[in-house]
Write a structure and sequence with these properties.
Layout: H1 6-17, E1 21-26, E2 38-43
Antiparallel strand pairs: 1-2
Length: 55
């Protein structure tokens, strides 16, 4: 998917793997040297643990 716009990549990944991905933006200046907002694909994650599991 290299070279695709993030939105196109998100659509392609969702078709291939299911609705796990969404479009997102990293705000400008979130990282040193990042002057512009960056469009990215974000993946949903879920962690499940037993209630008795120690922290």
């Amino acid at each position: 998917m290299r070279g695709r716009a993030p939105g196109d990549a998100v659509d392609a990944m969702n078709r291939k793997f299911g609705p796990l991905y969404t479009r997102d933006t990293i705000p400008a200046k979130a990282y040193p040297g990042q002057e512009q907002p960056s469009q990215v694909a974000t993946v949903w994650n879920l962690i499940v643990a037993h209630a008795d599991m120690p922290e």
